[in-house]
From TrEMBL:
It is a multi-pass membrane protein. The keyword Transmembrane helix applies. Keywords: ATP-binding, Cell inner membrane, Cell membrane, Membrane, Nucleotide-binding, Transmembrane, Transmembrane helix, Transport. GO terms for cellular component: membrane protein complex; plasma membrane. This is Macrolide ABC transporter ATP-binding protein/permease. Its main location: membrane. Belongs to the ABC transporter superfamily. Macrolide exporter (TC 3.A.1.122) family. It is found in: Cell inner membrane. One of its GO terms (molecular function) is ATP hydrolysis activity. It comes from the Bacteria.
Amino acid sequence: MITIRNIKKCYKLNRENIEVLKGVSLHLQKGQLIFLLGESGCGKSTLLNIIGGLDYADDGEYTFNSINVREFNEKEWARLRREKIGFVFQSFNLIPHLSALENVEMSMILLGLSKEERKRRAIELLNTVGLGDKLDYLPNQLSGGQKQRVAIARALANDPDIILADEPTGALDSENSMHIMEILKRISQQGKIVLVVTHSQELTSYADRVIRMRDGEIIEDEHALVTEEIGDVYEDSVASKGKKLDLLTTLKLSFRNIKNKKWRNILTAIGASIGIFGLSIIMALGNGVKDKLSSSIDEATAKSSLSVANEQFAVLNENDIARLGEIKGVRDIYPYNPFQISIKTKEGNKATSSAESLAPRKYAEIIYGKKYIVTGKFPNDQRDEIVIPERIAKKLFKDSAEAIGKNVSLVVQLMSLKEIYPTVNVHATVVGVVKNNSIPLLDTVGISYGLSQKIMKESIGNSTSALSFTIIPSSINDIDLLKSKIKQMGYKVQTDEESQNEINEYISLASIALGMLSGISLIVSSIMIGIVLYVSVLERTREIGILKALGAFRSDIRRIFVTEGMLIGIIGGAFGVLGSIAVGKAANYMIITFMKKSSLDIFQFSFVQTVLLIIFSGLLGILASFVPANKAAKQPAVEALRHE
């Protein structure tokens, strides 16, 4: 069945080669309970590990059912272990966060048995070892003897040809030791090789054969009568593909570990959520601003007029009006000027706001819409009149209705990117109150056409000058032709829709810039996830060894830790987007409550963006887990099992 010839093994210790096995030869047959006896350090555990493929010989031959396995690679050994070899360890080596039933099922999962089949067989095996009433118990809820019986049931799960037991009674009392040996004896009588490594002489009466070792050599081999071998010959099942850990099991193992270290992982996820929180808030703010601009531009009939300015943002004058007025297709031209304004009532109440010159009254309803005025009317072009937003009306007066007809003092300054202009003091009458969320006068004071000219006269000495002009075309169909002609004359020209698009571009650039700052948090959180997983690898080194002993591939181990990183990332992403939604909704509520803007949702969250952010966070978790996952996958099984 198993034959090893002249097996040698050396270890390096302080640059010195220590010879552990000195040309060991051995033949093992089915139907035997074999004791490998010797003092600590004689090489018996090393020999057992080589037979089980957990360690590798430096020299010699090893055949398993006439197949040379000496040159097997790690993956081929993993397949052989999962199909033909079962392990029982002194320290039991059960996975602590899995129940007795799940521990027994694990090797069958690797073999690819169906859920129903592996559960049926696991229950049957646990009943066989007397633990049918402990199926859902975790290892820390079992006694030492019960743990070892679970380990034996796990070793038998895939119906292996050989059971390798390393000091199976070393951690048990005499009563439990005898019970374990009786179970192992029955297993050998069912036609399996059971090789027990021990230094105890007391239980040798159970053995069919006792092999004694000293200083890396076999010094005695007491043979009992050997019956004819039982069972089928191993038909190169190593060539079979086997199964990788399925997604559900991988998720279960990863989630169980996250749950076991829940506070550490929750804190890590919270740290990981900071960057996602920042990105989510920035995107929601961008969505809200763009939406408000878009809806308001629609109300202002985005394509019905053109805005014309100097390429250098200099003041335009009557010469520019004359040149533009000569273009065929121009129906009318009127100035547009932005201002900063301070308003003071007779009672001494004050408010500051941005302000804009209004279109002539004949175009007002076309440009601003009929619903622009909430209370009152549009200003008369020839009078010193203004309209104010609801927010300012309630700040200066008790309500909107009371504001109508009130005289106020104004301090006005023309706003320009190129120059700073002097302030102008004027008086005006409030004739209308406008909606807070109307654009182009969103939260701006509207100054009558005539009053605007008066302010420009005092500010720059020319009433017809302006920072830009609005052109009303004879026909909307002339828009593109007019734009082309005006551009040829050296002016900057845009429709309101194009102005909105330009603003949206600036908003997008600002969002990207802020997003890059959040990206620093994402990098830090990714490093944090990597560190936590690295610590997890160190803590679970023995579990890694157990899985490899059961036949797990490197890819299986890697997938467990990558999945764990992904889950932490997803949880962090969920924390981030939920936190941002809570903060955004609270901010919207405060804006509505304190600024009296019933429909001004500045933070608008997109379901698609939210899902994509969580997915992105999961991907960051995967990237962060690569280094610790690869470290886990490359752990030598024999060293991992020795880890304390």
